[in-house]
Specification:
mainly alpha, 2 domains, Serine Threonine Protein Phosphatase 5, Tetratricopeptide repeat
């Protein structure tokens, strides 16, 4: 009898676990299905390509990273709404990171290193221009004002005008813009930090200092900017506590 009751109890537990697992799958399917429906179909391919970005970067396949960024830029540039968006700034910032990494490589010869620095600087400046231009447009708008701009823009596009999920696509874009508006000062801070790194390696220390100051004005918890400032003054790098790494300060 005990064995029968035990087996019955196991079956009940397994049954509950199966029900919970199925419920979780259904909830996830609905959740991610709704997310997919709300993605702008005109740039969905770029989002899919970004999924490969970290794989290539982790494998130090910089040629593929740059090729992928070119393809992503083509997608965004083909839609008027995204041609001057923060996404274009991200693309240039990512390119700059590749060239800066190559410049700082131990195997880079001096003349090649300088050409990499020049390429990194060019893309950093282009990215900063995109970020600043985009923030001028959206930086002080209310949610209602953002929505009005997006509705007018998206509703006039022949691809979206009869789309079944146009409302969800518009709402998703409004959320993306609101999030990006918070994140863009941090992205700008990273750009200025990287410009400071370039200037430091070019021995233009005063200009490097000015870039680090600008980076910290935009994001006071920019650990990389703080450490590069320390290096500039011959001080040891500041160590981040394990707790701080797990729970970084609020970036808002």
């Amino acid at each position: 009898m005990k064995s029968v009751r035990k087996n019955k109890g196991i079956r009940v537990v397994l049954g509950i676990m199966i029900i919970l697992a199925v419920a979780g799958i259904v909830i996830a399917w609905i959740y991610y299905g709704n997310i997919n429906k709300s993605v702008d179909p005109r740039v969905k391919q770029a989002r899919l390509m970004y999924a490969r970005y970290n794989t290539y970067a982790a494998g130090n396949d910089y040629e593929m990273v740059l090729s992928l960024l070119d393809s992503i830029e083509e997608v965004y540039a083909s839609v008027s709404h995204y041609r001057d968006s923060y996404e274009m700034g991200v693309i240039h910032n990512n390119r700059a990171s590749v060239f800066l990494t190559l410049a700082l490589s131990d195997t880079a010869r001096q003349e090649i290193r300088q050409s990499y620095f020049a390429l990194a600087e060019r893309h950093l400046i282009q990215g900063i221009d995109y970020y600043n231009g985009w923030m001028t447009l959206y930086g002080n708008q209310s949610e209602e004002e953002i929505r009005a701009v997006i509705e007018e823009d998206f509703s006039s596009d022949s691809i979206l005008v009869s789309h079944d999920y146009l409302g969800a696509i518009i709402q998703n874009r409004v959320r993306e813009i609101q999030t990006a508006r918070i994140e863009t000062p941090r992205r700008l801070s990273v750009s200025y930090t990287n410009l400071g790194i370039i200037r430091r390696h070019e021995n233009q220390l005063e200009e490097a200092f000015e870039y680090y100051v600008k980076a910290l004005e935009l994001w006071e918890d920019n650990h990389a900017a703080k450490n590069n400032m320390n290096i500039l003054f011959g001080q040891p790098p500041e160590k981040q506590s394990f707790f701080r790494k797990l729970f970084p300060p609020d970036r808002n």
